[in-house]
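Hi,

I'm pasting everything inline rather than attaching a file, because the server keeps stripping attachments. The sequence lines come first, and each chain or strand is labelled.
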Amino acid sequence: MLVKVFVTPRKGILDPQGRAVEQSLKTLGFAGVAAVRVGRYIVLELDAPNFERARETVRQMCGQLLTNPNIEDYTFEIEPIEGGPR
Amino acid sequence: MKWGVVRFPGSLDDADTLWALNQVMGQEARALWHKDEDLADVQCVVLPGGFSYGDYLRCGAIARFAPIMKSVVRFAGDGGLVLGICNGFQILCEAHLLPGALMRNRSLAFICERVSLRVENAATPFTCAARQGEVLWLPIKHGEGLYVAPAEELRAMEERGQVLLRYTDAMGQERDDANPNGSTRAIAGVANETFNVFGLMPHPEHAVEPALGGEDGLKIFRSIIASVERTSAAASTAASS
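And the predicted assembly:
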């Protein structure tokens, strides 16, 4: 299965990168931009018997290594790999 | 006393820390390899500054899983003294030996300068050779030193006196422009609840000789020595009585 993990700075936590990008976008003339957060996108392949097991494994990965719950939130998507076994 | 300085791939300040302890302070300090699990019989473990494992993913996130960290966690759990400097502080937070986390500096720039710090709690094994409220001058050099922790946790830490060092101006006054990286509450160094684990972003090992521009770093190491001596004196009194 193909796993896509999206990691963003936790809401309410100062994100200096997001703030700098937001300021630059405004300087370029993009109106109506707000709440820019800069995060991380992790993609990986996982051999799992079903979606439920895959979800459980990804949650463990996020809790133990991929994210720091003190400062980051995450969401993830799981999809079958094209042409591969489900 | 006996010290162990952990050497991770990407550690930078291990040699300077060993120099400060052995050559400058006449201590018995040795390097500990990250793949070993044996801490030998050291009385204090130092996690030095640097970019362990390239700081991939997050600073300290990979180093936390090095074989030696299992022993460090056990050592800390048994009350052993652990000092984390800069990257070492980041590793201790990732390993949950210290609360909170360290993020990109608010300026997004790498900062390399000498800063003034106020000693917030001088009644700990890491600060007892300094005076309460004393201003220390130490160098910082980091890109990710902005300390954050959940608001409730911060309140509890302040109440328990776990904030040991805070960035202030030269007079010991808190000012926003004296906070180099934007740390929450200008926090520069924190201890765990049992005060045997301490992490700080400034580098005491870079301030141990006049030639380095200052000697205030000695106060951190002297505190640890005094505290270990006191503990072993108490232990031998208890044993002989």
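The CA atoms of residues 41 and 59 of chain A lie 15 Å apart.

If the labels don't parse on your end, tell me and I'll reformat.
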